[in-house]
Amino acid sequence: MIDGLLATFEPFQMLMIFIGVFSGIIVGAIPGLTGSMLIALTLPITFHMTPLHATSLLVAMYVDSITGALISATLLRMPGSPAAVMTTLDGYPLAKSGQPGGALGLGIAALFWGSLLAWIALATLTKPLSELAVILGPFDYFALVMMAMVLIASVAGGDMIKGLIAGFLGMLVTFPGIDPSGGEMRLMFGVDGLIGGFKFLPVLIGVFAVRQIFADVLTIKHRPEPVINTNKGLFMSWGDLRRFSPNILRSSFIGTIVGILPGVGASVASAISYLVARLQSKTPEKFGKGSEEGIVASEAANNASVGGALIPLLALGIPGSVVDAILIGALTIHSIQPGPLMFASNPDIVWNVIAVDLVATFVMFALMLGLVRFYIRVAAVPKTYLLPVIMVCCVVGVYSLNNTMFDVWTMLGFGVVGFLLERAGFSLGPFVIGYILAKVAEAKLRQGLMFTDGDISPLFTSPLSASLLVIAVILLVWSLRPERRRKSAARHAKGA
Question: Which residues are in the DUF112 domain (predicted)?
C-alpha cells in the first residue's frame, strides 16, 4: 500500500490522475455524456502508455465521472448521469430556494466521505477476497459467472427477461473468430475481418458513445434556465458534518455493499439509500422539496458504490458495473488479467489502483470546491457543438486500433444495435457485461472439461459450484415474481 501511494506522487503519475479527475468531472457534469463513454474514447490513447500510467488515468476518470453529475443535477435540474436522478429531486429545489452553494456543499462533502469510506473497504477486503477466490476450481468459477449474469439481468431496468436476453446477446457477440481452445474458425460467414472476432474497443464505443450520439440527435431540447450559482454555504461546517454523519455512514455502507454486487450499480445504490434516509428521517415530508438529508444520502451512496465495484473487479475479475467491464478490457489490452492471481502476478497494478482511488478522491474534492463556476459553464455547452466533435473522436480512435475500416463499420453497426436495444427497452449493462463475462465463462468451462475428460457432472456435484448454481436459480425465480404479478394484474384489469 505504501509503495502504491508513493508511486502516485511521481510527476507524470500525478498528471494522469489530475487529467483523469478533471475530465471525469467535466464529462459527468454534461448531461448525456457518461464515464463509460469517456473511458471508451480514452482507451486508444493509453495503448502506448505503461500499464501503471494507463490504469491511473482510467481509474481516476472512473472514480470521478459520477461526481460531476451533482453540478448539473443541482443547478440545471438535468442529471449528468442516471445515478444523479435522486440528487435532482432535492438538489434543484434547494438551489432554487436561494441556497445553491449549500446544496452543492452538502453534495460535495457527502460524495467525498462516501468515496473515502468505500476506499477503506477496497483496501481491506480486496486481498482477503482474492485469497479466498484462489481456491475456486474452473467449474466453481463458471458457476460464479453464471450467478453474476443472473444477478446483473435481475436488476436490468426491472425486466428480468429482457435483462437475460441482453446478457446472452452480449455473449453471442464473442463467438465469431478463432476458437480459443481448438484454434478453429467459427461463425465467420466468409468475412475476413472477423478472423479476430469483434474487437472490444469498436463494440464498446459503438454501444456507448455512438448509440448515445444517435439518441441525442433525436432528443436535443432546450435546457432549463440554470440557477445562479454563489459560493455561499459551499463549505460544510463541523456542526453540519456531525449532524449528517449517521446519514453519511449509513449511505456509504449501502453504496459499498450494492457496489460489490455485480451489475447493480450506482443508480440502485442511490435509490436504496434515498429510500432508507427518508424512512429514518424525522422530516420525511421535505424529501423531494429540497431536503438536505436526501442530497447527502444520494451522493454518499453514489460515490461509495464506485469503490465497492472495484472490489470484485480486482479480487475476482468480475465487473461490478458497466464501467468496470470497460476497465477489465483496458487491463487485458495491457496484458493484465484481473482476478485473484493479480496480487501475485501484478501486485504493483493492484495497489496502484487502490492508491489512485484514494488520491483521486482528495484531488476531486479540491477541484469540485475550486472550479464550480467553470463546471457549470461547461455543462451548459449545447450538444449541437459537442456531438460532431465526439463522433470524429470515435472514428479516429477506432480506426487507429488496427488501421482498418472494418473496425469503424463494426463501431457504427453496434451503435445501431445499442440504439435499437435501448429503444426496445433492453438494458445495455447486461449486454456489455455479458460480452466481457462470456470469455471468462467459456475458458473456465473448457478448462474444467479438460480436467475431467469431458465429464460435466462435477459442475453439479461439487459443493461450491452446486451451491452457486442453486443461488443463481433462486435469484432467477425470485426476480421473475414481480413480472408475473405485473402481468397477472394487467390481465385482471383488462378483464374488469
Answer: 14-433
